[in-house]
Design goal:
single chain; alpha/beta; Nucleotidyltransferase, domain 5; 10 strands; 42% helix; 19% strand; globular; binds 5'-O-[(R)-(carboxyoxy)(hydroxy)phosphoryl]adenosine; binds zinc ion
């Protein structure tokens, strides 16, 4: 018997990436992402500009996703969209578009929690990538999020730790700005760090309880450190960039790994999945692999295009919810703040 082929369109517009994807069951047929370059000029995401760009991008991005998947929109079984959390003006664009298209095609509409999607991205079927078994721990690290989640089942998740202020990606990006690097500075810090000495400078680790994180103090200490050193030597940053980046990255990775070790110990769970843009960091990848040797962990890092904001992760949640017949209706509204 041929298993049924379910086609889902996923739409993501929570921040500064407009994305659409088509999945056939758990496989991705297309995943189109239009990243908004405009924010680079401002050193961070400008919400009003983001929603305007989503409006311009959404139709061509969805068209392209359907074309690349080699299907017709009439073949779709459901539309899944990011309801929240995110920037309200950005979410509204995807939500309104998803509603209209579902109405026009007379197919079910599925609302998706963006944070759950970062985690469920691990259930996309992709050659060479394993799918975690329940329960597992998921650490979502990006420019907007820093969370450790205990995942008991697809839709049974518990946040056991999160940041009380800045996200880890912000710690990278804001520090990079202090060093005079362009936005987003995370990948550049990673690049320079690979040529530097991680023990050259000492940055403080925050004292924050349980499994929570705090990164705003680190950013302030980076600022004071640079201001002090530049007073003594105006060329300090340029002369020591590799060592500064290596030391900062070393500190951030230690902070993340300390909490992950604690979470694994507390829960007794050794399956660890990561997601979000910061999971591209070479240092965190290395530290996780070391965790496999040192603590007997099994670690899961998805394909890079499914770790940053993308619609394929919205599509996989759409598929899982479709199989549960978990649909929403036309009265659904976007939500800037949203828990599981
Ligand atoms: O998931 P993402 O694309 O968007 C959201 O923020 O939701 O993550 C972007 C973040 C930025 O803060 C960027 O600097 C960071 O991920 N990032 C990195 C690296 N690549 C991306 N941070 C450190 N090292 C990297 N290699
Ligand atoms: Zn995200």
């Amino acid at each position: 018997m041929n298993p049924q082929k379910i086609y889902i369109l996923g739409i993501e517009s929570s921040c500064d990436d407009t994305s659409a994807a088509v999945l056939c069951n758990e496989q991705v047929l297309s995943n189109v992402v239009a990243s908004q370059k405009i924010h680079e000029l401002y050193g961070g995401v400008v919400p009003e500009l983001a929603s305007r760009a989503h409006q311009q991008n959404i139709v061509p991005v969805i068209d392209q996703a359907i074309k690349q998947a080699n299907i017709k929109k009439e073949d779709l079984h459901a539309i899944a969209f990011t309801r929240g959390p995110g920037l309200m003006g950005s979410l509204l664009v995807g939500t309104s578009f998803a509603k209209s298209l579902a109405l026009a095609l007379d197919i079910p509409l599925i609302d998706v929690n963006h944070m759950q999607a970062h985690i469920l991205a691990h259930f996309i079927e992709e050659d060479g990538f394993d799918i975690p078994e329940f329960p597992f721990l998921a650490m979502t690290i990006s420019g907007g999020h820093t969370q450790i989640v205990k995942v008991n089942a697809h839709f049974d998740m518990e946040i056991i730790g999160e940041t009380i202020d800045d996200a880890v990606g912000e710690a990278f990006d804001k520090s990079a700005k202090i060093f005079g690097l362009p936005y987003p500075g995370g990948p550049l810090i990673d690049k320079y760090a690979q040529m530097g000495n991680p023990k050259a400078f000492l940055f403080p680790k925050p004292k924050v309880g349980e499994l929570n994180f705090s990164f705003s103090g680190l950013k302030t200490s980076v600022l004071y450190f640079v201001q002090k050193k530049v007073k003594e030597n105006p060329n300090f940053v340029a002369e020591n960039l590799n060592d500064i980046c290596a030391s900062l990255q070393y500190t951030i990775i230690n902070i993340l790994m300390d909490k992950l070790k604690k979470a694994s110990k507390q829960t007794g769970i050794k399956s660890i999945a990561i997601g979000g843009g910061v999971s591209a960091n070479s240092g965190i990848r290395r530290a996780l692999k070391e965790g496999e040797q040192k603590y007997g962990w099994k670690t899961f890092i998805p394909k890079f295009e499914y770790t940053t904001d993308n619609a394929a992760m919205i599509g996989i949640v759409g598929y899982l919810k479709y199989m549960n017949k978990d649909f929403t209706n036309m009265s659904v509204v976007a939500k800037a703040r949203m828990r599981f």
